[in-house]
Amino acid sequence: MSITIKDVAMRANVSPATVSRVLNQSKPVSKAIREKVLKVVEELNFNPNSVARSLVMKESRLIGVIISSIDNVFISKFVNIIEEEFFKHNYTTLLCNTRSDDGIEKDYLRLLKDKYVDGVVLMTSPPKPHQIEFFEQVDIPAVFAGHIDPSQQFSSVNIDNYQAMYDATRYLLEIGHRRIAFFGGPHIYRQAVERLSGYKQALAEYGIGSEESLIFTNDYDIDHGYANGMALFQRPDRPTAVCCVSDMVAIGAIKAAEMNGLSVPGDISIMGFDDILLAKAYCPGITTVRQPIQELSVQTAEMLLKQIKQKEDYVKETRILPHEIIVRGSCMAVTG
């Protein structure tokens, strides 16, 4: 005779609804009740589905990794490194590519809950209302990577985006540039807003006002870098330099400069951001802001594994990693 949820409830002296909440990892159930129900589940060898045994053992060895776009070279590198890092600790990753769609992300969160993952890494955005609501209802450890949680409800790790773009702009100012454009990202991304603020602050400290006509807020890819460049470089009042929100945008901008008969860096300097492998291999080599992708990935994994191990004793943390300006051939000094 097969064991049912009612048998578990009767043995544990709780309601079937309570057993259901325990099996669905719902927070309202107390720790004592949860442990009592799981003990009975194990005693009765109750297997409601393929992951029930994992629940009883209190681990599935699965980690959800939610990203905004697999097409983003920087994010792809992050996934490769963190997957290897989790594998070293005998965890398997479930990759969830949301394509920057909140609806898709919500579906993936529900899927990860159903898979009883031991933890979740999010590299999509700072905490949004639907993410906060999900993790308030479901007791799953989570770390935000590439984004800082201002509220400190979650552990997070990133660079200081404001300071990084400030330093990039400051570098161009120090080598003589005064009209510097900004090829940024959509303002729905906090990091795009922070980088824009850093750019404006560096200009302000040199007594230079930011010109709205020199600021572009598109996406982080080659196509948008190219489109921005084609719109800007044909103007008679074009700038002498551009700060780009990513290396892929910088590559698109360089292609646009070439299409307009401009030399990089002879006629215009291009500053990237991220320091992906292509930035070094490209011609000219791209001067850029290096994000420590290895450290970002490893520390994200380390923080989540620590949270999984320590459970209620874990103290949420925010880590800010160092960035670095990498000087190559896409920027040059100007005079006059």
From TrEMBL:
<keyword id="KW-0805">Transcription regulation</keyword>
<dbReference type="Pfam" id="PF00356">
    <property type="entry name" value="LacI"/>
</dbReference>
<keyword id="KW-0238">DNA-binding</keyword>
<protein>
    <submittedName>
        <fullName>Transcriptional regulator</fullName>
    </submittedName>
</protein>
<dbReference type="InterPro" id="IPR010982">
    <property type="entry name" value="Lambda_DNA-bd_dom_sf"/>
</dbReference>
<keyword id="KW-0804">Transcription</keyword>
<dbReference type="Pfam" id="PF00532">
    <property type="entry name" value="Peripla_BP_1"/>
</dbReference>
<dbReference type="GO" id="GO:0000976">
    <property type="term" value="F:transcription cis-regulatory region binding"/>
</dbReference>
<dbReference type="InterPro" id="IPR000843">
    <property type="entry name" value="HTH_LacI"/>
</dbReference>
<feature type="domain" description="HTH lacI-type">
    <location>
        <begin position="3"/>
        <end position="57"/>
    </location>
</feature>
<dbReference type="GO" id="GO:0003700">
    <property type="term" value="F:DNA-binding transcription factor activity"/>
</dbReference>
<dbReference type="InterPro" id="IPR028082">
    <property type="entry name" value="Peripla_BP_I"/>
</dbReference>
<dbReference type="InterPro" id="IPR001761">
    <property type="entry name" value="Peripla_BP/Lac1_sug-bd_dom"/>
</dbReference>
